[in-house]
Recover the amino acids of this structure.
């Protein structure tokens, strides 16, 4: 085969690249679409594009035309380390949010405790009988006797 | 189902036009690839993809209220 002749390999790789680009274009159109039917048509075409791209990729791989480079161990280790840092940051962030939520809930709790001296509010805030015991002293049975 | 007249947004219409052009180009390219390749399996795949792109084109063309190509 001549050097400048288009090979099956080049054609297959061009096929894969065209389908990849089509998938990118379809995705951006789906994201901007208002009409549900048009959106669904784009989605169906995108799914078909994914399947065709995979078919072309598998064909190229079978023929040894497309061999993705494997990641080196050092690179994997670096990504694992970076991911662990991100996990820690997320956990720290979640903990801060939890603490803030607890802090915001605290003044309400304090108001409820202060309201124990005001009988009218006490019924709304704490309907349990046990608190009446604290206000009036003794058991409810003693009070109503 | 095509859009009712005037119900398509400007963005959708521009996107639709550009995507119809893209699908149309893909039909031509994949047919060209099918003619150029030597592997029968690859040729069959290119022909199949060209038909699939044509089908996509016709499906999307319905949204412009244009009757499908015979």
């Amino acid at each position: 085969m001549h050097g400048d002749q288009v090979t099956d390999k080049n054609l297959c790789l061009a096929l894969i690249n065209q389908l990849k680009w089509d998938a990118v274009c379809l995705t951006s159109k789906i994201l901007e679409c208002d009409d549900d039917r048009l959106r669904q048509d784009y989605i169906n075409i995108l799914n078909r594009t994914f399947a065709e791209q995979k078919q072309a990729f598998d064909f190229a791989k079978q023929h040894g035309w497309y061999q993705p480079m494997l990641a080196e161990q050092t690179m994997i280790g670096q990504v694992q380390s970076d991911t662990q840092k991100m996990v820690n940051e997320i956990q720290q962030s979640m903990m801060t949010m939890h603490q803030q939520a607890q802090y915001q809930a605290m003044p309400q709790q304090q108001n409820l405790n202060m309201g124990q001296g005001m009988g009218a509010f006490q019924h709304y805030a704490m309907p349990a009988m046990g608190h009446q015991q604290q206000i009036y002293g003794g058991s409810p049975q003693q009070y109503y006797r | 189902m095509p859009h009712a007249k005037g119900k398509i947004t400007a963005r959708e219409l521009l996107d639709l036009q550009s995507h119809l052009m893209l699908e149309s180009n893909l039909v031509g390219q994949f047919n060209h690839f099918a003619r150029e390749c030597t592997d029968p399996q690859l040729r069959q795949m290119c022909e199949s993809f060209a038909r699939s792109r044509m089908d996509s084109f016709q499906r999307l063309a319905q949204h412009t209220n244009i009757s499908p190509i015979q």
Summary: The first helix of chain B runs from residue 10 to 36. The two ends of chain B are 18 Å apart (CA to CA). The helical segments of chain B are 10-36, 40-61.
